[in-house]
Amino acid sequence: MAVHNNSWNLSLKAAERHVVGASVSALIRCCGLPKIVTPPGCIAIDPHVHTSFSKCSISQVEQIIMRAVRMGLRAIGIMDHNIVTGAGYAVTCADELKRRKLIPEDFLIIPGTEIACGSGQHIGALFLEEPIPKKQGVDATVQKIHDMGGLAVAVHPYLSSGIGDALFDAPFDAVEIESGSVLRHDAAERAHLLANDDRLGNLAKLGSSDAHHVVALGMCYTVIRTDSVTLESLRSAITQGLSTPHTSGTYVKLRKLAYRLPALR
Ligand SMILES: [Zn+2]
Ligand SMILES: [Zn+2]
Fold first, then answer.
1. Going from the N-terminus, what domains does the chain have, and what CATH number goes with each?
2. How far is the CA of 160 from the centre of ligand 1 (A)?
3. Does 58 score more than 50 pLDDT?
4. Angle of the 249-259 helix axis to the 185-194 helix axis, nearest 10
5. What is the model's pTM?
6. Which ligand has its closest atom nearest to the C-alpha of 57?
């Protein structure tokens, strides 16, 4: 009987997840293309985006770049799971779109990846063009990212695939305070509390879509104070703490919708 009950509960949860997935897609489409406007001296970037180079994404690179430009993003970070080939391809694709004058010359792809460390938790890397080994410990992964010149990001820290409070024990460079993949109320609230947590020290605070579908691009994003748009200036601004996490109106509506669903409360 207990097995039957568990199965029923599981199928209810699966059904609810299906409802959430369908509702998310429908709501995002209904809301249309969000337009991101920033004050003078600031730009908006989405530093955590997946492409079809991730097994769980069907987003085509060219579509992602064109949509990013249309919505007002000046740069996107490509963080495909455990590989950097998606980011490399995105750089090539952006160059070709610039050659055809379809996107601005100064639109940037920030190369990166999202590594699964030993216990399966995800760690983001930005400004990294070479692959790094997966299934290493948290400290070893962060150290490797630094050795190869990248910035280590504690992505969606309080999702089950995030590293949680272990982010305080390793020398991360940045943490996602806002993540489009976090709809669970408790995970989102814990991440928001981080914004004022003294233990963060000088960690940069980011907002990212973690988009696995092109329509989710820019759900959450980061505003950066900078006078120029180059990889060096973005990296410098992030490490100086000149980044602020933001949410789109669509994301706020989705959070309200998700809060009504017990599985996501
Ligand atoms: Zn992840
Ligand atoms: Zn991700």
1. 35-248 (3.20.20.140)
2. 9
3. yes
4. 130
5. 0.88
6. 2
